[in-house]
Design a protein that fits this description.
The complex is a heterotetramer of chains A (303), B (599), C (602) and D (341). With 602 residues, chain C is an alpha/beta fold. Chain C has 23 helices and 21 strands. In chain C, helix 6 (151-164) packs across helix 8, helix 8 runs parallel beside helix 9 and helix 16 runs parallel beside helix 19. Chain D has two domains: 37-72 and 80-108, no CATH class; 124-303, Orthogonal Bundle (MetI-like fold). The chains are: A mainly alpha (303), B alpha+beta (599), C alpha/beta (602), D mainly alpha (341). Chain B: Keywords: Signal, Transport.
Chain lengths: 303, 599, 602, 341
């Protein structure tokens, strides 16, 4: 047998450890660190679409071809054409321009609800995880109750008190999605709190406040950034579901849920009124998911 | 649902139908010409029913049935009917409850297409000189399905029951006029009124005034009387699977159909399954797929096709059409000129034509629908689309400034108004389109309209019914006669509040005119005085007409003989029958609850 | 070879036969000529991980491949059972196992071979057996897959197999999950599942790693028995003592190449290749006590010796004999003292279980106290109490003679910097967001950072200063500024542990607690880190509380030793004394196992 | 979506080795544990009912007016005189606390009250509708699980493009608005292809599309959370051990890996039950199915407090029971949790 003096450490990141799981038979190790730099096509597509969404949200005039409110009584329910890319609705309004103009509110609902939901979740989830046995028990029960409670009722309360507006939907949906996230935050904070680096920081005699601010919260909440983006898509879907049940934004708002609800009676004769806004919701939710997963995997890759 | 249908002695069928009809024809009293036979009314074809029978069979057949044609309709079978909304009770004050009550309960009189009434349980009637006492003569052969007789005693009991909380809407119609009832003999009852009320009989033709067995009302629980009221009608409630369907079963003893029924004797059908299908697409789709034999409330977008494919009937509800009621007590609309300006400001006709795809008539009047007896077409036309006029009026009212978005401004205040409406309860999706069109069109004149759709809870709880909660509200109110004006425009007073006055109009002149009309001795005077009231209202412009409330019915060619009754537009199944034995045999019948949905 | 088996202890029931049956076999069971393996990643990049490896295994023979992580030894082993993994490319001039060409076998063919003709044993049954299923089910599965369909028969065979591998009460064990069994029992169960169908070849990939030393010996015994029965064994290990105990022939792999091969005796006693020599040198034991394990360590010590007089901070230390000044340690005051420490936990069954009982010790300045024990002996709990993380139920810990365990949380916080810790897994003890420099400056900051209201200039100056001190610390542990700039994830295991040590030194502690600090490292890296620790103690006079399960490491490092078993300190005394004249029978047994394993390489 | 399960928190100290074989463990705290669970469940139900009661009582608008208007189909103000009998009948005029105590008293007696609008005991109203809703909800759950498991077994940790495409499909499924999916299914399969009834009713054929409507998005979620665990488990050493035993890839996936990936799916299921109910409202609406969803919407719209409370309590009960089942399933899947619990 020939002795080969050539020595090439194959896995720099893993070299020097033998404990735990034996090295995976395929070299997941070395590539992973570099993978995140290579952005998949799907993420590119999602990125471009997200850019369009943001443009539509902040400067709808740039993308819209028509006044979203302008009615044309002569041509209701016109099929998609060169003039009206997505056809017209029951008032002869240009559906494409309405979807573009509806982006602001829909995204606001998505972002807002996700922010409210995740915000509540962060506060109460961390509180439950760090606040001791009582806080954990009380908040844990509250989360249970919220889980068991139909979101529909909550939505109704808010709408009855504040009227059907974007803010109302944000509150209702935010509260609806909060318990799930709160549980995640709680678990996350608990696991970070038990982590080696938190113990290490405590061993150095750092003040608990500093440990909380420097280690526990940042590390527990970082994965939530991805979750937040996923929540955006979910919130838009939820909000449009509420619109479907008659708890939507007041007309003539072109909020997507409202468009979906308005398009429902015309599904056979004017399919575009239902299908296209639905695709917009789906594409947005999917975009948020794809970007969220990408962010998540990037963050994980960094770890 | 697990008890098999009991054969109700079909031999016992009384056959005095035609006799009743003849009696009625010769009856005296205050019956208008043209009410003699429903057949004539049908042949004349009033504005009430816009019937399009592509099959070309239904119309003649109905007449054939009426004139006693030799061809005997197919007996039996359970008809599948798809309906929009589910009632809370079979009988009640809600219009949906009238549709079901009409299958189970009989009324004293039956309305015809021209707004007159024909005998039903009451074969004859007479009113005193002072118009305060109505004497009704009743059939002597009618009994409720619990076996108790429908006699004068029962009628008197029912009057008291309706007025005393048994039916809120009945009380709203007759409450200010009814005093008491007196039983003269078994077949005669006197109704004493506190004030003359010309449209008395027409009022009684609505199913709010359906007759129930006093024994049942007294001895059974509220729940039983809600889900299975005992009447004398052509059907009884067999089963009610809430959220899914109500099953009605033929009353084998039935032999007292109203004079304008297409036939006498028990119903041809073994029964009806009244399916609740809230979604329009599903409802129409279920007709297309053959799951339903007939459906109500055909979505506007399907009407054109339904006219081609099915026996399609559209019924225009009399009473107050769908209008925007303007708040005359508070806010911007206290100024009559502003109300008039808004009435002129939009092209409502084009709006309705577009929003309903030409399937529902535009109603220019804010007070009565065109199918209401006493409707004045000229008074209705006072506010054609005239943007210039609207602008002039607003300029004159001091709304001369303009904000950046075009909204008019007066003393720093924007011409901004809030219009509330119960979406999907009062206003259909198509109506919602029309309201949005209205909103958009009114921008040209400088109105900034905020639309506030209400959830049913908000809508009915009264939170949006007070003067300070809206500038405009959208609503309609069915009524077979112009007396609805009294309900809607009687000023609200401390002693006698009138929540139905949703414009909060407090105008002595209008009120007086309406009272005169109600008490006018002749039809001509009634009509003339109601005309005057409509002109007066029109000038005040407290409401803006949009479209007529319509009921529609599409019937597949498997069944025939289905019609919409004229008082409220409910479907009548008593005369309905399958067109062939194959069609009947392919129907699922009862007791198939578990094995259904094969097709 | 003979020398190895001669050292067998009574624990070894059946020593491997002389020379095995190797010579008798005419045709090898496994014959591999020039095996090459590549892996390709998601982007199609190929890496060549095994280069021209050739190996032959005969019936009744044990061939060992020894190497550190990343040497390609496991890949080679897995290739022999057709489980190289997805995205792998295998090429060899000859590759036959049990007479079949493994390059042409399809998956269905493999399935009939694996588990039947070739058994496979991985390290640590806790993760190598399905943790959700009973071991009986796992063993039964091997039988079911190879034709034993009848349930009752399977159950009987499972019990029989468990009995064969020396499991007491097999019918009970068969119904338990790996986590319910002790390490030895579950490893036996794993072996039972691998040999269920009496394969003629067993591939054992690190079969004893992560096991306690006594258990290791038992498991190796078991394998030796199989070998004696004629089973061929391919043993993969990083541990010379294990290899020496079992192997007839040894291949040394490094970076995918075989750098040396020969009989076990040749390779272990007379290594030719420098890499092999380096590896053997790096094994710590009593013999290496007071010496440096690596070439580099020796060189650095020598360099230091020449400038010894100029050093300000170093304790006066003899170069080749760092332990010398410690001799009069008993006069040195104890920095950390534990008195009668006791701790119990409430178990899931509601009963209290005492994990530490009445443990007392003193750690003297500039010296090392080693605590050794097997898993569950309570040594880590003792460390946690010493660190002040958990309060003892009884007893007390004194730091510099002052109360420590009895302090309030806040009171202890201000003195935490005096006792620091180095963990087994450094990576998990670093905040995943932080660079090495940040980690060190944070440690330097402990308790000294300027307040929130300090001026930005003061803070900038402070940061500048800390940054320089971090660089100094890094140099001290042999890291460069480039290392500090990196994320720990991108450092090697040894570098991470150096960083971890630097962090522990940053607050200039009185005591550093090393909790299994080198247990997860490859032997050569472990040697480097141990050398670093020795050097630091020598130059800085650092005091260590050194906790490990590894007797060799403990002996190499410690001045005094505390032996723990089941929460009780069974033996306490001078390191050499404990190793040479153990008093407690447990210590004797422990050392017996060690001797059974340890090679007499030197 | 990365749902973190906190399942594997084991006791601090490892079992020591003195007794090599541990025989059965004492079952001292089982009764206490059950008692605790039941108490917790009762608390959730009580809290849900109380919140509902408060919400319904404090909403703007007058309940008596609402009832009266609903009975007549009108939208208007009502006079005190008109409202008096209704207030009298239902006790709307009593102080809130008195109403609440009455309500609680009824609950304790097992009396949920009488529907304001249907005049039926709430138990009857719910009893009539509970079966179709439960059937729909649990069929949808079953559909979701079946889809997710098949998808995982076939596509997880396969060629990269396969995994990527299918995990993309999962994301898409999870992002589907249910009503939109429902309408499309209805149009395509019932109206165009005529495969299923348009009006679903409560029959079996009518169950397919509503169950898919609820099941497909949930399957997306389930598959997402389970895929992560599945792929992680595929890297576990015991998978290699099983393969080395001669097990086929499919066998390993089915017999070993799948079981491990069930846990996050189970916890998601526990959470999803509440949300599934809200989704059932939508499916019942689109497909004209009877069920509690429709009852709830109608009751909420009509502020039929006894019915709303009853339905909410029932949903809470179903949630609580499902979660107890999920907890049990957890232990069945991962017996190690029995000790941790």
């Amino acid at each position: 047998m020939t002795a080969q003096p050539q020595s090439q450490p194959r896995i720099p990141a893993d070299a020097g450890t033998t404990g735990g799981v034996p090295a995976a038979p395929h070299p997941a190790g070395p590539v992973q660190s570099a993978t995140w730099r290579r952005v998949p096509v799907t993420v590119w597509i999602a990125g471009v679409f997200a850019g369009l969404l943001l443009l539509a949200a902040f400067a709808p005039g740039v993308l819209a071809t028509h006044d979203p409110r302008a009615i044309t009584l002569g041509s209701p329910l016109a099929a998609p054409s060169w003039e009206h890319w997505f056809g017209t609705d029951q008032s002869g309004r240009d559906l494409y321009s309405r979807i573009v103009h509806g982006t602001t509110q829909s995204l606001l609902i998505g972002l807002g609800s996700a922010a409210v939901g995740v915000g509540l979740a962060v506060v109460f989830g961390s509180w439950a995880a760090l606040g001791g046995r009582w806080a954990d028990a009380v908040i844990g029960r509250a989360i249970e109750v919220l889980f068991a409670f139909p979101i529909l009722l909550l939505a109704m309360v808010f709408i009855a008190v504040y009227g059907p507006s974007v803010q109302t939907l944000i509150l209702a949906v935010g509260l609806g999605i909060a318990p799930g996230y709160a549980r995640m935050v709680r678990a996350q904070v608990m696991s970070v709190r038990r982590s080696g680096y938190v113990q290490a920081a405590q061993a150095l005699g750092h003040h608990p406040g500093r440990v909380l601010a420097q280690h526990i919260l940042p590390n527990a909440l970082r994965p939530l950034l991805a979750v937040l983006t996923l929540g955006i898509g979910q919130s838009i879907v939820w909000a449009s579901g509420l619109a479907f049940l008659g708890f939507g934004v007041a007309p003539p708002s072109p909020e997507w849920g409202a468009l979906l609800e308005a398009g429902r009676p015309y599904i056979i004769e004017a399919w575009w009124l239902e299908i296209i806004p639905g695709l917009a919701v789906l594409a947005t939710a999917l975009t948020a998911t794809v970007l969220g997963k990408f962010v998540e995997s990037t963050l994980e890759g960094e770890r | 649902m697990n008890t098999p249908p009991s054969p109700n002695a079909p031999e016992n069928r009384p056959v005095s139908a035609w006799q009743t009809a003849t009696t009625t024809a010769s009856s005296r009293a205050r019956r208008r010409p043209g009410a003699l036979t429903a057949g004539i009314a049908l042949a004349v074809g009033s504005a009430l029913v816009l019937s399009a029978c592509s099959s070309g069979t239904a119309g003649p057949q109905e007449q054939a049935a009426l004139t006693g044609s030799a061809t005997e309709p197919v007996q039996g079978g359970v008809l599948e009917y798809g309906h929009l909304q589910e009632p809370n009770c079979i009988f009640g004050g809600w219009i949906q409850e009238n549709f079901t009550a009409r299958q189970v309960l009989d009324n004293l009189v039956s309305a015809t297409e021209d707004g007159s009434v024909v005998p039903w349980i009451a074969t004859d009637w007479e009113v005193s000189e002072d118009q305060l006492v109505w004497t009704l003569t009743l059939r002597d052969d009618v009994h409720f399905t619990d076996g108790t007789p429908l006699d004068a005693e029962a009628v008197a009991y029912n009057f008291d029951y309706w007025m005393d909380g048994g039916n809120g809407t009945a009380a709203a119609h007759l409450g200010g006029f009814y005093d008491h009832s007196e039983v003269v003999d078994a077949d005669t009852v006197e109704i004493h009124l506190s004030a003359p009320f010309a449209p008395f009989l027409s009022t009684l033709s609505q199913s709010y005034f359906g007759l129930q067995s006093p024994t049942a009302l007294q001895t059974r629980t509220v729940e039983e009387n809600c889900t299975e009221p005992i009447g004398s009608g052509p059907f009884t409630v067999k089963d009610w699977k809430r959220g899914e369907y109500i099953e009605f079963e033929r009353n084998e003893d039935y032999d007292w159909a109203p004079e304008n029924a297409r036939h006498q004797g028990p119903a041809y059908l073994e029964g009806i399954r009244w399916n609740i299908v809230p979604d329009g697409t599903s409802r129409y789709g279920s007709l297309l797929a053959g799951e339903m034999d007939a459906i109500g409330e055909v979505p506007a977008v399907n009407i054109a096709e339904a006219r081609q494919r099915y026996d399609f009937t559209q019924y225009i509800t009399p009473g107050r059409p769908v209008v925007i009621n303007l708040n005359t007590e508070r806010g911007i609309f206290t100024d009559q000129a502003v109300r008039q300006a808004l009435s002129h400001a939009t092209d409502r006709e084009a709006n309705i034509e577009s929003a309903f795809l030409g399937t529902v008539p535009f109603e220019p009047s804010g007070y009565l629908s065109q199918s209401t007896p006493g409707y004045d077409a000229d008074a209705a036309q006072q506010y054609p689309f005239d943007l210039e006029k609207a602008n002039e009026l607003l300029d004159g009212a001091g709304w001369t400034g303009r904000a950046e978005d075009g909204t008019r401004i007066k003393d720093g205040q924007r011409l901004q108004v809030k219009i509330v409406y119960g979406l999907n309860t009062i206003v259909t999706p198509d109506g919602n389109t029309a309201i949005q069109n209205f909103q958009e069109q009114a921008r040209a004149a400088g109105f900034d309209i905020e639309l506030r759709p209400l959830t049913p809870s908000e809508n009915f709880s009264g939170a949006y019914s007070t003067p300070d909660s809206y500038d405009g509200s959208v609503g309609y109110w069915t009524s077979p006669h112009a007396g609805i004006l009294n309900i809607n425009y009687r000023p609200s007073t401390e002693e006698a509040p009138n929540g139905a006055n949703t414009t909060f109009l407090d105008n002595e002149e209008v009120f007086t005119t309406i009272q005169q009309a109600l008490q006018a001795p002749t039809d001509a005077e009634v009509t003339a005085t109601f005309s005057e009231a409509q002109y007066q209202l029109s000038e005040l412009a407290p409401a803006i007409g949009l479209y007529t409330q319509t009921n529609t019915l599409a019937v597949s060619d498997r069944v025939s003989g289905l019609w919409l009754e004229p008082a409220q537009g409910g479907p009548i199944f008593h005369d309905a029958h399958f067109t062939s034995e194959e069609a009947r045999d392919s129907s699922q019948g009862f007791s198939a609850a578990n094995a259904e949905n094969e097709g | 070879m003979t020398t190895l088996t001669d050292t067998a202890t009574p624990l070894l029931t059946d020593p491997a036969p002389e020379g095995g049956a190797a010579g008798a076999a005419s045709r090898p069971l496994v014959e591999v000529e020039n095996l090459n393996v590549w892996f390709s990643d998601a982007h199609g990049r190929r890496s060549h991980v095994v280069h021209d490896v050739s190996v032959q295994i005969h019936a009744g023979e044990c061939v060992a491949i020894i190497g550190e992580s990343g040497s390609g030894k496991s890949v080679t082993a897995r290739t022999l059972i057709g489980l190289t993994g997805p995205n792998s490319h295998v090429r060899a001039d000859t590759a036959t196992a049990l007479g079949r060409d493994i390059q042409t076998l399809r998956d269905t063919d493999w399935r009939s071979i694996r588990g039947k003709d070739i058994g496979f044993i991985l390290q640590d049954a806790l993760v190598s057996l399905d943790p959700l299923r009973t071991v009986g089910a796992e063993i039964g599965e091997s039988l079911r897959l190879h034709g034993v369909r009848d349930r009752a028969e399977r159950a009987a065979r499972v019990e029989q197999l468990l009995a064969e591998v020396g499991v007491p009460e097999p019918h009970l064990v068969a119904g338990q999950r790996p986590d319910q069994l002790s390490g030895g029992l579950r490893q036996r169960a794993l072996i039972a599942s691998a040999i269920a169908n009496h394969p003629s070849l067993v591939v054992a990939d690190e079969p004893t790693t992560a096991l306690d030393v006594t258990v290791q010996a038992q498991v190796l015994d078991l394998l030796a028995q199989r070998k004696a029965d004629g089973t061929a064994i391919l043993l993969i290990s990083h541990d010379f003592s294990v290899v020496g105990r079992l192997a007839d022939r040894v291949l040394v792999m490094q970076g995918g190449w075989i750098v040396e091969s020969g009989t076990a005796a040749e390779v272990l006693e007379n290594p030719q290749h420098p890499y092999t020599r380096q590896l053997l040198d790096a094994v710590p034991s009593g013999h290496t006590k007071g010496e440096y394990l690596t070439e580099e360590g020796r060189a650095r010590a020598a360099a230091r010796a020449t400038t010894a007089g100029t050093s300000q901070r170093t304790a006066p230390a003899g170069v080749g004999n760092p332990a010398e000044p410690k001799d009069e340690a008993s006069q040195v005051p104890a920095v950390l003292s534990a008195r009668g420490l006791t701790k119990s936990y409430r178990g899931p069954d509601g009963r209290d279980r005492t994990v530490v009982r009445d443990v007392s010790f003193d750690v003297h300045a500039g010296r090392t106290l080693g605590i050794v024990g097997e898993s569950g002996s309570g040594k880590s709990t003792t460390a946690s109490m010493a660190l002040g993380f958990i309060a003892p139920d009884a007893g007390t810990v004194l730091l510099d003679g002052a109360p420590w365990s009895e302090l309030s949380l806040a009171g202890r916080r201000s003195r935490r910097r005096e006792v620091t810790v180095v963990y087994q897994d450094p990576l998990s003890s670093f905040d995943p967001r932080w660079s090495g420099e940040r980690i060190l400056t944070d440690a330097l900051d402990a308790g000294t950072a300027p307040g929130v209201f300090a001026s930005s200039r003061a803070r900038r100056a402070h940061r500048q200063e800390q940054s320089e001190r971090a660089a100094q610390l890094a140099r001290l542990v042999g890291l460069t500024p480039e290392h500090l700039a990196k994320h720990p994830l991108r450092l090697s295991g040894g570098q991470r542990q150096r960083l971890s040590i630097a962090r522990a030194l940053a607050p200039e502690p009185k005591v550093v607690v090393l909790d299994e600090a080198v247990s997860a490292l490859d032997v050569s890296v472990q040697a480097q880190v141990l050398d670093l620790l020795t050097e630091l103690q020598e130059t800085l006079g650092t005091t260590y509380l050194f906790i490990s399960h590894d007797l060799g490491v403990i002996h190499h490092m410690s001045d005094e030793i505390l032996v723990m078993k089941d929460g009780v300190a069974v033996e306490h005394g001078d390191a050499d004394r404990v190793f040479e004249q153990p008093e407690h029978h447990y210590t004797q047994a422990l050392l017996g196992s060690l001797q059974a394993l340890s090679t007499t390489v030197r | 979506m990365s749902v973190t399960t906190e399942t594997l928190t084991t006791a601090p100290a490892q079992p020591s080795s003195p007794e090599p074989v541990r025989r059965g463990r004492p079952v001292t705290s089982t009764a206490a544990l059950i008692g605790k669970k039941v108490l917790g469940a009762l608390f959730v139900i009580w809290a849900a009912a109380s919140i509902t009661f408060l919400i319904q009582s404090l909403l703007p608008g007058d309940r008596a007016t609402l009832l009266l208007n609903q009975q007549t189909g009108q939208v208007q103000e009502r006079s005190a005189e008109e409202l008096a009998p209704i207030n009298e009948q239902f006790g709307f005029d009593d102080p809130l606390l008195v109403q609440y105590v009455t309500f609680l008293g009824g609950l304790l007696r097992g009396d949920l009250g009488i529907s304001y609008t249907l005049y039926q005991p709430v138990t009857t109203v719910i009893g009539d509708q509970i079966v179709p809703t439960l059937v729909l909800t649990f069929t949808a759950l079953a559909v979701a699980w079946a889809l997710a498991i098949v998808l995982l077994l076939l596509t997880a940790r396969r060629a990269p493009w396969v995994s990527r495409i299918f995990s993309g499909l999962e994301s898409a499924a999870a992002a589907l608005p249910q009503y939109w999916l429902g309408i499309i299914l209805l149009v395509v399969f019932s109206l165009w292809l005529g495969l299923f009834p348009v009006v679903s009713g409560s029959g079996t054929a009518g169950l397919v599309l509503p169950a898919l409507t609820l099941g497909i998005p949930l399957a997306g979620f389930l598959a997402q959370v389970m895929r992560a665990e599945f792929e992680r488990t595929m890297d576990e050493p015991f998978v290699l051990t099983a393969r080395a035993r001669g097990m086929s890839d499919g066998g390993v996936r089915l017999r070993h890996v799948l079981r491990h990936s069930l846990l996050p799916g189970l916890s998601l299921t526990g959470w999803a039950v509440g949300a599934q109910f809200s989704a059932a409202v939508i499916a019942e609406n689109v497909f004209a199915r009877p069920g509690l969803g429709r009852v709830l919407v109608t009751a909420v719209n009509g502020r039929d407090l006894p019915v709303v409370c009853g339905v909410v309590m029932l949903v809470a009960l179903v949630y609580v029971i499902t979660n107890l089942i999920v907890d049990t399933a957890y232990i069945l899947v991962d017996p190690r949790l029995k000790e941790a619990a």
